[in-house]
Design a protein that fits this description.
The complex is a heterotetramer of chains A (577), B (330), C (308) and D (312).
Chain A (H helix, E strand, L loop, with lengths): L5 E2 L6 E2 L9 H18 L8 H8 L1 H4 L3 E6 L14 H10 L5 E3 L5 E3 L2 E6 L5 E6 L13 H12 L8 H4 L4 E6 L2 E5 L21 H7 L13 E7 L3 E6 L22 E6 L3 H10 L4 E2 L7 H7 L3 E2 L2 E11 L9 H9 L3 H9 L4 E2 L13 H7 L5 H10 L3 E2 L5 E2 L7 E6 L5 H15 L2 E6 L2 H9 L5 E6 L7 H6 L18 H11 L8 H15 L2 E9 L2 E2 L3 E2 L2 E2 L8 E2 L4 E2 L5
Parallel strand pairs in A: 3-12, 3-13, 19-20, 19-21
Antiparallel strand pairs in A: 1-2, 4-5, 6-7, 7-9, 8-9, 10-11, 11-12, 13-23, 14-23, 15-21, 15-22, 16-22, 17-18, 24-27, 25-26
Chain B lengths: L4 E12 L2 E13 L4 E5 L6 H9 L7 E10 L2 E2 L5 H7 L4 E4 L3 H4 L6 H9 L7 H14 L5 H4 L9 H13 L5 E5 L7 H18 L2 E6 L2 H4 L5 E6 L2 E7 H6 L4 H8 L41 H5 L5 E4 L2 E3 L4 H8 L1
Parallel strand pairs in B: 3-8, 3-9, 6-7, 7-8
Antiparallel strand pairs in B: 1-2, 1-4, 4-5, 9-10, 10-12, 11-12
Helix pairs in contact in B: 4-5, 4-7, 5-7, 7-8
Chain C lengths: L1 H28 L5 H4 L8 H10 L6 H13 L13 H36 L4 H15 L2 H15 L15 H27 L2 H8 L4 H30 L2 H7 L4 H10 L3 H29 L7
Helix pairs in contact in C: 1-13, 5-6, 5-8, 5-10, 5-13, 6-8, 7-8, 7-11, 8-10, 9-10, 10-13, 11-12, 12-13
Classes of the chains: A alpha+beta (577), B alpha/beta (330), C mainly alpha (308), D mainly alpha (312).
């Protein structure tokens, strides 16, 4: 495995790349040499797999064939793009059977996919996309601008009550001036939202298929991606078949295959128990798992020939505070909580140091991360400072070293959270660390159906959460902007109502990704929010896509682009099929 | 001539959590072909255990036949293998049990239960077995036997069930029929019918019978000879007439006195129950087991358990004071 | 018997009515808003969005209106559509039914094979080695949570020995490990139950009668002891069969089987009301139905039981 | 004259040979006391049952003194330095993934697990006894109503009950056990109803009725003492099952809240580490096995003592 931690343009952050070449030592050696040369020459990009070289080595024809078997952790809620927004489904609907207007390459840059080019109006309110004219749905119909407009208007249809897509498009209108031009009109500048067009749920849908199939559409969805759905078995899995007419693949990396993929079929199996997913990878019954949470399992998998990529993934682990109610209406208390967390120790205990420490609102796996500004404005463990802040805020210490509130009561708080992916362990360590500060924490680590109502009803003081998929600085808008409201349901709000914060968030939203002032503006936002200490930021969860030994030629992608692994050139060697 | 069945010094004990139960303590008796023998005693006297022992039907654990010999047709039943003994059970020696309510399997048809006894013992085809089943049921007086063959025990009255038991026991034409209080659980009116049926059929088939009962009155007209058991011992053995006339054991005397008789005119108030509790079988018998309840008991009775001794021809008694007893009855 | 069956079938109606009422009451009394798990929190929702969805999902209707709508739809075979994916709840359930029933039957068979044979052996050799082994098996079986049992079976037989695939359809073969994992606890209970029941029957007079006939001991055991010992065994298996329909979430999770247990837990976790209502109603119907079958079976096993 | 006269035979102790058991007398005290005493005598003669009782007592004792051996701070304090250490003299049961001593946690955990187990049994037994008695005794429409209610309870998956109780009362072991206890009521109701129906037919109940005893008196003085035996046995088994259920509920994030070292929660946590640190699942698992085993031995002993027919 060849990994090149690299620092990328405009502070996107570091990520690891790897290639998964096994068994063919000739190819491996060749690739190592090639990669070394490439690094020397370009010095700024991750070594791409040289698919051309591999094709020479193994022959193009022999790369076609075989079945890629993928394990999913949860049932697919729906394959109708507008009826779900769950992250697990995104892998199924986004990467494999749909194509989006634009996507991101291995450098995190926006590149054409179904749209050949695009431009923003000067006021940032109008986006225009020029489409390819050779794209077809799986049912053979050509894809035109009208399909996009119809699709997005469907998502906005109040009768459909689309949980994810519809809400993201809220307030927008769409036009199709001609067959191959789509225009988005925004109510307010929101250029930072461009990333969401890389999200699988923003793919076009076939009006004819949706209308003809009705309720049956979910079981026979029609997309434009490299694979078409042939069977949906609720609760059990999904089968896909290669779409041979697919030739509009994006250039994810140099030398990326833009034609049909190599695997004949993709079989998704639903395996809710992580231990089973690991056992299946280990036994060779599954070729790909999207993430492994326990770092100790990596050794087991590697011993079985599985390649485990480890990269931060914008899986922000943080504690949400109710900023508008005591004791968190006092910024000193909030800051004290942040100072009292020893982030190096906590990631070491829980993840053997695999999770990246995150000292402020933007974490290492996120678009817009800048290590220098984190060092400058982020929080470093300082228990004395934390105690001082508490005392400045009017708290005192009792004989037992525990805090007493200004009212003379023992200071105790409840921290609630979901017991998934080491969540309980994080909460237990936090409890122990805040005890050092003199704070008595009661934990409630519980089932989502119990947790969510308490979160939405604000029936808690502090909530531990881990969000995947917040891969851009823009997530700050969703949790710290005053319009996100104090009184709306939705689990992880911080109830912030601050004009300065609002202004900074709006300003960032209006800036294009190629605006040279963007990073500076993001940094300003970072320091402001960190100073306000609206939440306790802890770490950025490591995401461990794991690829079984049968699969060769995969390329690591930047996790925040929604594709931790590029499969466009991947194949299964004939002898392994 | 050799006896059909000869029991010698049979000892059976039960090993329970409370201690060893001395159920049968060395009994010996014989049965000749065609003879009918009565074994009389109260509950716990060992009369049933005695016959179950020779059939190999004592549940082990907790019970065990400790000692003794049981000769049947020249073989010692106690030394036979399980298979050999099984071949004799049902075919040569058949048994009718006390309670027809519980002795038939509630979930199997009566036809099946009658047929079941023939399958291992008689070399008959399925049809022949079915035919014979109906014949047997008719023989014991079950109306509509052909159709009722498929009925279950609970669909029959108590008396009918006992008839079915009888049909079952006759199925293989055994040479010995053991009837273990076949009428105690039945209504008085039915009792006579059943007794009559068994008597008639056993004579008809030429079977030797052993009647087990606690009721001396029942056996009076049925058997040639009576054995009286108490606390696992045979205390008296005689012909029926002799037993009544020359009672030589105080326990037998007690049994007779507690008996309302149709033939005599003893008034109800003259019935004399046997006083005291039944014996404690957990005690190793060292003295006469009846001594605690015995009006005749003397010092010797507390020192020594009297052996069964000949008191007249064909009359044995196990009492030191049999002469006094005999004198008292006259 | 026909009348009885019909009457029992009619009794399903009040039971299911009761179940539906209790579900509605529970859901209504549970604090919080079912929308919490439905709407995603990543991007802002306006108050109007929320209100619109609430209206859309009929959550603003008075409770009794919701209840009667649900009943009326259910009567017409429509269990509603999922809050989350918009899929038909009935289809969701039917899609998982074959796998659920397969696993339940396989689990029952494994339970019976293990539990009854161990129990019978223990009773026949009471106090002996088989008896002691059965007791140990029963205790250990009862003390191993089924999640562990399932994982251990998977690691030993699928990962180490490679006798089975961890995932992938192998026909009936792929039922073996999940069935064993499911059977471990109930088989322990069943073994003890069988033993006790057999020992009780062994004391019965009719067993002595059977022995007195000179038939083979195996026949005595089978026809006279075992047949009569069946009633409590069948009662237990009936209760078990009912719970197997919905209570196998651990085994389903570990073996990645699409079952109703997981479906229910998932929908409860997500507060997907239509799925919860429909799923529980369906499971309850299945449970009542299994109970009816068990009651009818009693009559087959024990002719003394009559259906007036 | 010093001769050992045999005592009157001890009750029906020779019953297994065919002697008849004396019919119960009218006064229930007389009826129940003597069998209870005899059952107790039988129980204490059973070495397995006594062993079970001794182990149970020992477990309860140890959990009671656990706070003297380990402070609560030791139970919850995490440390990277002691993470995942195998068993050693310093940590006889090893340490867990957050570096906490497992022996201390297992000892403390027993408190919660056992308390939860007793709670489940008490609720199930209490509710079930009352419903079962009424149902079996009253018969008719009351019986029908209760039985339908029991059907409904049985048909609703326990997990939904657990979730709703926790949803209403907040998460915690006690809340969940309350739900599990509720879910257990049908089992006890059925069991008790069956026994009551049987006991109702007994001569002494008829006799009591003829003598004009009130329903309540008959129910609690004549029937209850005669049906309580099998129920107690079932209850001891239920105690073991309840402890097992906590493990299953922890799997779903219900039940004991961290950092509580409840056995089920520990066992569930250990699942993630079973391939890396065997001592994490094994020790709480062993604790459960031993507790369940001892309870079951007591249950078996009770069963044998009450119903000597089934004795080995």
């Amino acid at each position: 495995m060849d990994c090149f931690p690299l620092h990328i343009l405009h502070g996107i952050g570091k990520f690891t790349c790897n290639t998964t070449i096994r068994r063919n030592t000739m190819t491996k050696r060749f690739l190592l040499a090639f990669a070394a040369l490439f690094v020397l020459v370009l010095a700024a990009a991750c070594a791409p797999v040289a698919p051309a070289a591999m094709e020479e080595a193994t022959g193009a024809d022999s790369m076609m064939g075989g079945t890629l078997r993928i394990a999913l952790p949860a049932d697919v809620t729906s394959l109708d793009l507008h009826k779900t927004s769950r992250g697990d489904d995104a892998l199924v609907v986004g990467q494999w059977f749909n194509a989006t207007l634009i996507t991101q390459n291995s450098d995190g840059e926006y590149i054409p996919y179904l749209a050949e080019s695009w431009e923003f109006s000067d006021d940032g309110l109008t986006w225009t996309f020029h489409l390819r004219d050779d794209v077809k749905f799986h049912n053979g119909d050509p894809v035109t601008a009208h399909d996009f407009v119809w699709t997005y208007e469907r998502a906005l249809d109040p009768d459909l009550a689309s949980p994810g897509t519809g809400r993201r498009l809220s307030g927008m209108t769409f036009e199709a001036p001609d067959d191959y031009t789509v225009v988005f009109n925004f109510p307010a500048p929101a250029i930072s939202l461009l990333q969401f067009l890389n999200w699988g749920y923003m793919a076009p849908m076939s009006q004819r298929a949706v209308e003809e199939l009705g309720a049956e559409y979910e079981l026979n969805p029609v997309g434009t991606g490299p694979y078409k759905v042939v069977e949906v078995r609720p609760g059990e899995g999904v089968s896909m078949e290669r779409w041979d007419e697919y030739n509009w693949g994006p250039e994810f990396f140099e030398g990326a295959n833009t034609g049909p993929y190599n695997f004949d079929r993709i079989e998704f199996s639903i395996l809710p128990e992580e231990a089973t997913r690991i056992a299946a990878l280990e036994a060779g019954d599954i070729d790909y798992v999207n993430g492994i949470s326990n770092p100790l399992d990596v050794a087991i998998l590697e011993a079985a020939g599985v390649t485990v990529q480890q990269a931060p993934y914008g899986q922000v682990r943080m504690v949400y505070l109710q900023n508008h109610v005591p004791p968190f209406d006092d910024v000193r208390v909030r800051q004290a909580l942040n100072y009292a967390v020893n982030r190096e120790e906590i990631t070491q205990i829980v993840t053997d140091g695999a999770d990246q420490v995150s000292r402020g609102p933007i974490s290492p796996g996120m678009l817009g991360y800048d290590p220098e500004i984190e060092e400058q404005c982020g929080y470093h463990f300082d228990l004395d400072r934390a105690k001082e802040l508490m005392q400045e805020a009017g708290y005192t210490y009792g004989d037992d070293g525990m805090l007493i509130t200004p009212d003379g009561e023992p200071f105790s708080l409840t921290l609630i959270g979901e017991p998934v992916d080491s969540g309980t362990a994080y909460m237990e360590v936090l409890q122990s660390m805040w005890r050092e500060l003199g704070l008595d924490i009661t934990l409630e680590s519980t089932e989502p159906s119990i947790l969510y109502p308490r979160l939405t009803e604000r029936d808690y003081q502090m909530g531990y959460g881990r969000r995947g998929g917040w891969t851009s600085y823009d997530y700050l808008y969703a949790i710290y902007h005053s319009s996100t409201g104090r009184d709306l349901p939705g689990s992880m709000r911080s109830a912030v109502d601050d004009p300065t914060t609002d202004a900074l968030l709006e300003k960032n939203r209006a800036m294009a990704s190629d605006n040279p002032e963007l990073q500076g503006s993001i940094n300003e936002l970072y320091c402001h929010i960190a100073g306000q200490s609206y939440s306790v930021w802890i770490s950025d969860g490591v995401f461990r896509p794991s690829i079984g030994p049968r699969v060769q030629g995969t390329v690591a992608g930047p996790a925040f682009a929604g594709r931790p692994v590029y499969f466009s050139n991947a194949y299964i060697a004939p002898e392994d099929r | 001539m050799a006896h059909l069945l000869e029991v010698r010094d049979l000892v059976t004990r039960f090993y329970t959590e409370d201690g060893t139960v001395h159920a049968v303590n060395g009994i010996s008796y014989t049965l000749d072909e065609g003879e009918s023998l009565g074994i009389v005693g109260e509950s716990g006297s060992g009369k049933t255990v005695g016959v179950l022992s020779l059939m190999g039907l004592i549940p082990d654990p907790p019970g065990r036949v400790e000692r003794g010999e049981v000769f049947f047709a020249g073989n010692d039943l106690l030394k036979l293998s399980a298979d050999q003994l099984r071949d004799i059970r049902g075919r040569e020696i058949a048994m009718i049990f006390q309670d027809p309510m519980t002795s038939l399997n509630p979930v199997l048809t009566v036809g099946y239960q009658i047929a079941e006894i023939m399958r291992p013992h008689l070399n008959l085809s399925q049809e022949e077995i079915a035919e014979r089943t109906v014949e047997l049921m008719e023989l014991v007086g079950i109306p509509n036997a052909a159709s009722r063959r498929k009925d279950f025990p609970h669909q029959f009255s108590g008396g009918q069930r006992q008839r079915i038991m009888i049909a079952m026991s006759l199925a293989c034409n055994p040479s010995v029929l053991i009837a273990d209080e076949p009428t105690t659980a039945l209504d008085v009116t039915i009792q006579a019918q059943i007794i009559d049926l068994v008597k008639r059929l056993s004579q008809q088939f030429g079977m030797a019978t052993i009647w087990i009962t606690h009721d001396l009155g029942v056996v009076a007209g049925l058997v040639n000879r009576v054995i009286v058991m108490y606390s696992g011992f045979i205390v008296e053995s005689a012909t029926v007439l002799d037993l009544y006339k020359n009672t030589s054991h105080p326990y037998t005397l007690g049994l007779l006195q507690s008996l309302p008789s149709l033939h005599t005119t003893i008034a109800a108030d003259r019935l004399i129950p046997i006083e005291g509790a039944p014996p404690d079988l957990l005690q190793e018998p060292v003295h006469c087991p009846f001594a605690p309840r015995c009006q005749f008991a003397v010092e010797q009775c507390w020192q020594e358990n009297p052996p069964l001794q000949r008191v007249a021809s064909n009359h044995d008694s196990a009492c030191w004071r049999w002469q006094d007893v005999r004198a008292a009855t006259e | 018997m026909l009348v009885y069956t019909l009457r029992r079938l009619l009794l399903i109606i009040p039971t299911l009515l009761g179940v539906s009422l209790v579900i509605f009451a529970i859901l209504a009394l549970s604090p919080g808003d079912p929308l919490a798990a439905v709407v995603s929190e990543e991007y802002g929702n306006t108050a109007e969005d929320i209100e619109r969805i609430r209206e859309q999902l009929h959550l603003n209707d008075p409770l009794h209106v919701q209840y009667f709508n649900f009943l009326w739809d259910a009567l017409r075979g429509d269990l509603g559509t999922s809050f989350r994916g918009g899929s038909s709840v009935l289809n969701d359930i039917l899609a998982r039914l074959p796998s659920t029933i397969q696993l339940a039957i396989a689990g029952l068979i494994a339970t019976m094979l293990l539990g009854i044979s161990a129990g019978v052996l223990a009773a026949l050799f009471r106090g002996g080695l088989p008896d002691k082994l059965t007791m140990v098996f029963a205790f250990v079986g009862v003390s191993i949570p089924s999640v562990y049992a399932a994982l251990l079976l998977l690691l030993i037989f699928a990962v180490e020995l490679r006798w089975f695939k961890v995932v992938g359809d192998e026909g009936l073969k792929s039922l073996i490990l999940p069935a064993l994992a499911m059977a471990l606890i109930p088989a322990g209970v069943l073994a003890r139950l069988t033993r006790a029941s057999m020992l009780e029957v062994m004391e019965e007079d009719y067993v002595r009668t059977a022995r007195s006939k000179g038939i083979r001991e195996s026949l005595v055991t089978l026809m006279h002891i075992f047949r009569n010992a069946l009633i409590p065994i069948v009662t237990y298996l009936g209760l078990l069969a009912g719970s197997l329909l919905s209570g196998q979430v651990f085994v389903e999770n570990v073996f990645g089987r699409p079952g109703l247990g997981r479906f229910l837990v998932d929908s409860i976790s997500a507060r997907d009301y239509p799925q919860i209502r429909g799923g529980i109603l369906f499971v309850a119907a299945g449970y009542v139905f299994v109970n009816l079958i068990v009651d009818l079976l009693y009559g087959v096993i024990d002719p003394r039981i009559t259906y007036e | 004259m010093s001769r050992t006269r045999p005592q009157a035979a001890k009750g029906g102790s020779a019953a297994s040979v065919g002697a008849e058991v004396a019919g119960p007398a009218d006064d229930w005290l007389v009826v129940s006391r003597s069998p209870v005493r005899r059952a107790a005598a039988r129980f204490f003669r059973d070495p397995l049952a006594v062993t079970g009782l001794a182990i149970m007592a020992l477990i309860i004792l140890i959990t009671l003194i656990a706070p003297q051996l380990y402070s609560w701070d030791e139970i919850i304090n995490v440390s990277n330095a002691t993470k995942l250490l195998p068993p050693s003299a310093a940590h006889p049961f090893g340490t867990d993934n957050l570096g906490r001593d497992q022996l201390g946690r297992v000892l403390w955990g027993g408190r919660e697990s056992l308390r939860a187990g007793y709670l489940v049994v008490l609720i199930g037994l209490g509710g079930g006894t009352i419903l079962g008695l009424i149902s079996g005794f009253a018969g008719g429409w009351v019986d029908n109503l209760i039985q339908r209610f029991v059907d409904v309870l049985l048909a609703i998956p326990g997990i939904l009950l657990a979730l709703s109780v926790v949803g209403a009362l907040g998460p915690g072991l006690v809340q969940v056990m309350l739900a599990v206890g509720l879910a257990n009521i049908p089992d006890y109701t059925r069991l008790i109803r069956g026994s009551v129906l049987e006991a109702k037919e007994n001569e002494y109940v008829r006799a009591a009725r003829v003598l004009g005893a009130s329903n309540g008196r008959i129910m609690f003085r004549h029937i209850l003492p005669n049906v309580i035996g099998p129920i107690l046995v079932y209850a001891t088994l239920g105690l073991g099952i309840a402890i097992m259920i906590t493990a299953g509920l922890s799997y779903l994030g219900l039940g004991a809240q961290p950092p509580s070292p409840e056995w089920g929660a520990m066992l569930n946590l250990g699942r993630e580490f079973m391939r890396h640190a065997w001592w994490m699942p094994v020790f709480p698992g062993l604790a459960i096995v031993i507790a369940v085993l001892s309870i079951n031995l007591v249950g078996d002993g009770l069963q044998d003592a009450i119903n000597p027919k089934l004795r080995k």
